[in-house]
Design a protein that fits this description.
The chain is an alpha+beta fold and 720 residues long. Helix content is 46%, strand content 14%. The protein contains 26 helices and 17 strands. The strands form six sheets. It has a five-stranded mixed beta sheet. The chain has a four-stranded mixed beta sheet with strand order 2-3-5-4. The two termini are 44 Å apart.
């Protein structure tokens, strides 16, 4: 019966011990911060159970030669040496949180459990504490890797602090860590600028206008932004921090808001460890191209020169069908509120030859399939550079989260003229689809969904990566002033007009479309997957008979619609902002297909639960037409650098009306937490390389990180 009084905070009574834990925590948070922080909801809670699954790679690893295993060991070391960078790109507080967990559990999970039990901490509270630690390790911090929203522990603050105290954590550190873990102030709930969120890419309180002002200087300097961060060090003084082993100060220039200085040496400690592992990998490289790639990587990480990373990626594309595949660097810009700075990631994986053969068959049919896409020939590349397309079994992936597929490099200068690689991460896909009750799917399709979910996703990933990200021409003016297209090209969307907008020299897609670039490109790739999955040749390539493939197409479309609805989880009504590019993309597709009418897609209420109804008989008619229309528009907007029309269309379809906000409540209530993947560690003992696997439990996840950063002397200095 506690009531908040309209009086100074000092006059509010302290909550009694009769309060529920949730209410007590809410009141204490209110009193501590002086802010009307809302009580924790399910969207902000760490899952209590079943949040960990195994990334199985033992079979793939066993097929390797001893030299290949040594190469995997070195590259795995490089990947995990860089993992703390991705944590710090969330926040320095996130790094301290993970470092504290490592110190707590260094003695062993069971020993810690027994110690805190003797101090009166219940098994339930300890298990919740351990699950939170495991979920933080799996997400690279205390923000969801897919959704970028903060999650908090399910135990109470009192229990959290008691566990830290039992394990000898300094009181001041414990207070900081506890505050970071439990704070639900409005400005820390998600990533953002302008005081609406946090970001390790920028100093606290950085505004969009300040960022844009500094970016103009960065562009004048001709610097790429992927490996940079921006910090305001004092009034009217900014540092553009560039990731490199070498530490030095560079140029200084003026922007609207003050003075900007280049500062090299950001993440120097971590990158020196990355470089050391890459240098060791040189002696085990499997061919000369890999040696050249490793050399370019080490030069890039040493100097911070992004041109060296571009060179490494150019060479990497030329290394066709290696037995062991890897990539490393500042790659994806999804988590930067401004959409230009990239998260550090690194992976090493083994090729699945049987599945890769299917993807290579898809590559051989690519030129035929490209002709089926809905845009005019002038908006497709003259020559399709047939890429390497492999199915991989991941051994190590050092990053905040592991994707199901990859299309790299992201550099347009390579993609447009030389080509790219496609990768499907087979053991990631299979780990993601475990037996479960499938939400928002009608009962009659539950078994069909479970039967074909993985196979349909294989098809979608293949088409998405190869012909989604791999298709389309960007119209541009070259450095010498010539155009890479006919200046009299008719505009497909504006009858009677010719194309009048295009990219200038050194102007990139990300530079034109900013935060819209990732969701729009992911939407384009997903649409290509839906559109081309209707081609019978695709089913034959993957080895399905006609009836089986008809079911797979249906489940593929249904799965994407379901993903679009569940994407509402990553929408923030408070800021009217999408927190995840893929989620926004899938919601746009859902909105488009709902708008078609004619019974193609609708929502049904069955026993109080919403289900998506997809009329499978209309997929190849009104469904294909609707997908083709949206796909054509987005591709033309991208090709012509038409931000104005693209943003108008995309913002309209991304908008969340009152009906969708109501559905969002149900999405949150029924949301199944995204599982985190416990990965193996690669060890050398007496010249023999082996892997250690861990159980799919919170204890297994924690133990894997203790082995990685406490017991591994070469990396133990990185997470302190």
């Amino acid at each position: 019966n506690f009531k908040l009084a309209a009086a100074p905070f000092a006059l509010l009574p302290l909550p009694s011990n009769n309060c529920t834990d949730d209410l007590r925590n809410f009141i204490l948070t209110f009193l501590r911060t002086g802010l009307m922080t809302m009580p924790t909801t399910s969207i902000q809670r760490c899952p209590e159970v079943d949040c960990v699954t195994t990334l199985d790679c033992e079979g793939a690893f066993s097929t390797l030669s001893e030299q290949e295993k040594q190469y995997v060991r070195c590259m795995s070391q490089a990947c995990w040496a860089g993992y703390p960078i991705s944590v710090r790109q969330v926040s320095e507080a996130a790094l301290e949180l993970l470092s504290t967990f490592l110190n707590v559990f260094a003695a062993g999970f069971e020993d810690v459990k027994n110690k805190v039990s003797e101090a009166g901490v219940s098994d339930d509270a300890f298990n919740k504490f351990g699950t939170f630690a495991a979920y933080c390790f799996g997400n690279g911090g205390n923000y969801l890797s897919f959704g970028d929203s903060k999650f908090v522990p399910n135990c109470s603050e009192e229990e959290f602090l008691r566990i830290l105290d039992c394990c000898g954590v300094d009181q001041k550190q414990a207070a900081r860590v506890c505050s970071e873990a439990f704070s639900l102030s409005s400005n820390v709930l998600e990533f953002g600028l302008d005081g609406k969120g946090i970001s390790g890419y920028y100093s606290e309180g950085m505004t969009t206008r300040e960022v844009e002002s500094v970016e103009s200087v960065v562009e004048e300097w001709g610097l790429m932004k992927e490996n940079t961060r921006l910090f305001k060090t004092s009034e009217r003084k900014y540092e553009l921090r560039i990731a490199s082993c070498e530490k030095r100060r560079g140029r200084t220039a003026q922007c609207v808001f003050g003075e900007v200085t280049e500062v090299y040496g950001d993440f120097s400690t971590e990158l020196c460890a990355v470089r050391s592992a890459l240098e060791e990998a040189q002696q085990f490289a499997l061919n000369d191209l890999q040696k050249k790639v490793l050399t370019a990587y080490t030069e890039h990480f040493s100097s911070g020169n992004m041109d060296k990373h571009v060179e490494a990626q150019r060479l990497w594309v030329e290394d066709k069908s290696p037995a062991v595949e890897s990539n490393i660097g500042f790659i994806e810009t999804y988590r930067d509120p401004a959409g230009v700075r990239a998260e550090f990631e690194g992976f090493v994986a083994v090729v699945n030859k049987e599945q890769s053969a299917k993807f290579q068959a898809l590559v051989q049919s690519a030129e035929e399939l490209l002709k089926k896409l809905p845009w005019p020939e002038a908006f497709e590349k003259e020559v399709f550079q047939k890429p390497d397309f492999t199915s991989l079994e991941v051994i190590s992936f050092g990053c905040s989260g592991i994707p199901a597929g990859i299309n790299l490099p992201n550099y347009d200068v390579i993609r447009q003229d030389i080509g790219f690689k496609n990768v499907s991460l087979g053991n990631v896909i299979s780990s993601a689809y475990k037996a479960e009750k499938v939400s928002f799917v009608e009962e009659e399709y539950q078994e069909l969904y479970k039967k074909f979910a993985v196979r349909s996703f294989d098809v979608q990933v293949g088409l998405h990566e190869l012909l989604g990200h791999g298709s389309g021409k960007m119209l541009c003016k070259r450095e010498d002033g010539s155009l890479n297209f006919d200046p009299n090209t008719p505009h497909p969307l504006v009858p009677g007009e010719i194309v009048s907008s295009f990219y200038g020299p050194s102007i990139t897609y990300d530079g034109v479309f900013g935060p819209l670039s990732s969701p729009m490109e992911e939407c384009r790739a997903e649409l290509v997957g839906l559109y081309l999955s209707l081609e019978p040749i695709v089913g034959k390539i993957f080895g399905f008979d006609e009836q089986e493939y008809d079911d797979i197409v249906f489940i593929n479309w249904l799965n994407l619609l379901r993903s679009g609805l569940r994407s509402l989880y990553t929408f923030s009504p408070e800021t009217n902002k999408w927190r995840q590019a893929h989620s926004q993309a899938r919601f746009v597709i859902l909105r488009k297909l709902l708008s078609v009418g004619d019974g193609l897609v609708s929502f049904l209420k069955i026993d109080g639960d919403t289900c998506i109804h997809l009329d499978r008989e209309k997929i190849r008619t009104v469904g294909k037409e609707a997908v083709g229309d949206l796909l054509n528009r987005i591709n033309i907007f991208k090709a012509t650098a038409d931000f104005e029309r693209a943003s108008a269309l995309f913002n309209e379809l991304s908008s969340v009306d009152a009906n969708m906000l109501e559905l969002r409540k149900e999405v949150i209530e029924r949301y199944e937490a995204r599982k985190v993947l416990v990965q193996c560690n690669v060890f050398e003992d007496g010249g023999h390389v082996s892997i250690r696997n861990y159980p799919a439990t919170a204890e297994g996840m924690i133990e894997s990180f203790v082995d990685r950063y406490v017991r591994n002397k070469e990396l133990s200095h990185l997470m302190k």
